[in-house]
Design brief:
Radius of gyration: 20 Å
CATH class of the largest domain: Alpha Beta
Order of helices and strands: EHEHEHEHEHEEEEHEHHEE
CATH architecture of the largest domain: 3-Layer(aba) Sandwich
Strand order of the largest sheet: 2-1-3-4-5
Number of strands: 12
Number of domains: 2
Structural class: alpha/beta
CATH superfamily of the largest domain: Response regulator
Distance between the termini: 31 Å
């Protein structure tokens, strides 16, 4: 394989799920996608691809046709029954009938193996630009590192060790976490958090400390340490993998 290409303009913050049973191919694609500013996760078989698609809600799926558990056609059919996530098929079967099957089932594009990974990245960027040009008004998802928040359903979760772990948060804890995740590098003062996240009528800044402490304890149960981060004399920032 050739060396990694020069950085190109990325589709900001996109998450791509790669469903590919050949780990070496998946690792190469992950490296090229990350080099272009696109985040990536890997599913090793069709069953895991469906589970991770449900948990992560990726912006695009790179889907191999020949996989264990469930093949790419079965995965694509399942996803299209519930979602319009863009899908690019990866296939070693360079036959028109296979390409037509993918397009008929709802694939957005296909790439035939062996492929140039730089070309795959270009295809990914093209599909993302096209499908994200007019994002639905209801799309309200925040992702920072292993944290994910759905602002529409008020659900927060952590994705680690191949599994999604829901967070049982109070409304105030949810608002605090969402506020910090919107700008994970920013340090928020207690006054900022008090105004933006706590119920009307709460005027004591030390109340913020109490809610942050309770949020931390819930995250520590799941092995997440030091989130949110205290900034002495100022307030809090998200921290973690931000």
């Amino acid at each position: 394989m050739s060396s990694l290409p020069a950085r190109v303009s990325p589709v900001t913050s996109a998450l791509v799920l790669i469903a590919e049973d050949e780990v070496e191919i998946a690792d190469i694609l992950i490296a090229y996608l990350q080099r272009s500013g696109i985040r990536a996760q890997h599913a090793i078989d069709g069953q895991q691809a469906l589970a991770m698609h449900h948990a992560l809600k990726p912006d695009l799926l790179l889907l191999d046709v020949l996989m264990p558990q469930l093949d790419g056609w079965q995965v694509l059919s399942e996803i299209r029954a519930k979602s319009d996530t863009p899908v690019i098929m990866l296939t070693a079967l360079d036959q028109d009938i296979d390409k037509l099957m993918g397009l008929r089932l709802g694939a957005d594009d296909y790439v035939v193996k062996p492929f140039n990974p730089a070309e795959v990245v270009a295809r990914v960027q093209a599909v993302l630009r096209r499908t994200r040009a007019t994002p639905p008004a209801t799309a309200q998802m925040l992702r920072v590192g292993q944290f994910q928040i759905d602002l529409d359903s008020h659900e927060a979760s952590i994705y680690r060790d191949g599994q999604q772990h829901p967070l049982d948060l109070t409304l105030t804890e949810f608002k605090l976490l969402a506020c910090l995740m919107r700008a994970p590098k920013r340090v928020f003062s207690r006054a900022d958090l008090l105004v933006n996240c706590l119920p009307e009528g709460d005027t004591l800044e030390r109340t913020v400390d109490s809610h942050i402490s309770k949020l931390r304890k819930k995250l520590e149960v799941l092995g997440i340490q030091g989130v949110p981060v205290s900034v002495w004399g100022v307030g809090y920032r998200f921290g973690g993998d931000a």
